[in-house]
Structure formats: structure tokens, C-alpha cells
Amino acid sequence: MPVDFQIPQIPLPIRGILSTVGPLDVVDILIVAIILYKIYEMLQDTRAITLVKGLLVLLGVTLVCNAFELHVISWLLQKAVTLIFVALPIVFQPELRRGLEHLGQGRFLGNGTLLDDEQARSVVHELTRAVRTLSSTKTGALLVIEREMGLNDISATGIQIDGLITADFLLNVFIPNTPLHDGAAVIRGNRLIAAGCLLPLTENRSLSTELGTRHRAAIGLSEQCDALIVVVSEETGTVSVAENGHIMRHLDTETLKAILEPVFSSKRQSLREMWENWRKEK
Ligand SMILES: Nc1ncnc2c1ncn2[C@@H]1O[C@H](COP(=O)(O)OP(=O)(O)OP(=O)(O)O)[C@@H](O)[C@H]1O
């Protein structure tokens, strides 16, 4: 028996709205949706997301109060929301700075040093060799690897060096009770550019209490820029890597190598080369 199937009719008011939507409106809405999603992605796992949720609740309550014409409460809430918007840039200065830096940083525009395949392989080999020894001898170390965002402000807090990276050189830097061992060493390309540098501490309160200031300094810097930070614990010898506000702990040499390889890889270099060639041609 044939089934009588009818396509449901779109209600008249919705049809009215749809008839006014053009292709440009669809593009407009898509762009706004992408921007909102990117903002959400940026704020995810940061202190700011809790505040955004609080703000949304406050806005919701204000709308409800307006609808019920509770004039005094809605006046107070409106003032509170305005005050919060003024306070936002002050309270979330680090997050804002990071967001704007992300915006301004094209993949090609970084100021790291170009490495060819051989140099990249060598620096990863020397780094992993040094970290393995530092870990087995329980020598505390903090190694900051610069990526697209320049770290001149961080390296300026320490002692300027500029030496080719070798495992022995790195081991020398972190020998306890020597002038350079305290603080972080900064790596740009295959060179150690500074040591004894001061990093900003994270204010994340949900971190394990096992993590002392060395690890908190690594997470703190990774919240503010795209650097990769390797930490060797003086207490336990464990190796960790901080990136993007997160820390991966208890890494073995193979895992560390797998993390480091793409950081120094030549794919990034070829994009840079494309950019530099394009600039030379201009
Ligand atoms: N803000 C900072 N910037 C750079 N280095 C720092 C900073 N704070 C601490 N450090 C380094 O960490 C050392 C202190 O480490 P602490 O024992 O407090 O941390 P930890 O995370 O428990 O590390 P570990 O497991 O090695 O003991 C300092 O001597 C210094 O070298």
C-alpha cells in the first residue's frame, strides 16, 4: 500500500524571515560564528572562561529583570555589567595580550632562526641527550624553546650567551651552585641565547600541589606565549613539557624527542623560506 508522505509546511513567520536572508547574510553569520568559536577556543581552559560564564548569567538575569520591569534591580545590574566590562582588560591583561599576539602572528612572521634538516636533527639529539643526563643526575633545569613569538623580553631578564647548543654545554649551564643554573635557559634555533632568566609564574590554582615554582614558572610562560618549555625536576628527575598553559609530566626520552622534532622541523622552515623568498622578490 503506498504511504501518503507530505513534506511539512514551513510556518508563515519563519518563511517571512527566510525570504529576507540573502547569501551575504549567511556569510556574515558564518564569520560571526567562526569568530565566536575562536574566542571560545582561546578562552577554554583559562581563568577567563569562568568569568565569561558569570557574565552570561548576569546578562540573563538582567534580561529577566527587564522583562518583569524590576527597574531598580535591572538598573543596578546594568551598572555592574558596565563596571565589569571596564575592569576586564585590567584583570585579564595576560590573556588579552596572548590573544592579540596570536592574532598578529602569521605562521611566516616569526623571528626564530632557520634550521636545515641536519641542524634540526642535531639540536633535537643534543637536547634530548642533555635532558636524559640532567634527569638521571636529578639536576633541576628549565629550557625555554622559542617558536613564532619572540622572547627578547624574557632573555633580557638573564645573562646573554649566544652559543651553539650541545649536550655538554647545556649540562654545564645547569651545574648546581654556578651563576647560570638558577632560572631558565632560552633557546632560539640551534643557539642558547640566554640563561638565568626569570619567567612569569602561573596563577592557576587548580594545579597539583606537587608542582613547585620551577614547574609553575614553565606553565606561567606557556600561558603567555607559544614557547615550549622543558622542565627537569631537581627533586625527582622527572621530565615535563609545558605548552599552551598545560603540562605533560613523566616523559621518557622517546616521547620528548617526538615532541621536540616538529618544533625544529624543516616544514616550518620551508614556510619561512617561502616568505623570505617572496620578500626578496618584492
Ligand atoms: N619564576 C621563575 N623563573 C625562572 N626560574 C624559576 C622561577 N621560579 C623558580 N625557578 C627555578 O626553580 C628553582 C626552585 O624550584 P622549586 O623546588 O621551587 O620548584 P619545583 O617545581 O618543586 O622543582 P623541583 O622538582 O626541581 O624541586 C629555583 O631555584 C629556580 O632555579
TrEMBL record:
A single Gene Ontology biological process assigned to it is: cAMP biosynthetic process
**What residue range is the signal peptide?**
none
* Record-linked SUPFAM superfamilies: YojJ-like
Reaction(s) the record says it catalyses: 2 ATP = 3',3'-c-di-AMP + 2 diphosphate
Q: Which UniProt keywords apply?
A: ATP-binding, Cell membrane, Membrane, Nucleotide-binding, Nucleotidyltransferase, Transferase, Transmembrane, Transmembrane helix
Q: Name one GO molecular function term.
A: ATP binding
Every DAC domain range:
93-253
Q: What is its EC number?
A: 2.7.7.85
Q: Which residues cross the membrane?
A: 12-37, 49-69
- Assembly mode: Probably a homodimer.
- Return the similarity comment: Belongs to the adenylate cyclase family. DacA/CdaA subfamily.
PANTHER family linked to this entry: DIADENYLATE CYCLASE
Q: What does this protein do?
A: Catalyzes the condensation of 2 ATP molecules into cyclic di-AMP (c-di-AMP), a second messenger used to regulate differing processes in different bacteria.
Protein name, entry field = Diadenylate cyclase
Instruction: Identify the species of origin.
Output: Selenomonas bovis
Q: Output the lineage of the source organism.
A: Bacteria, Bacillati, Bacillota, Negativicutes, Selenomonadales
Q: Which gene encodes it?
A: dacA
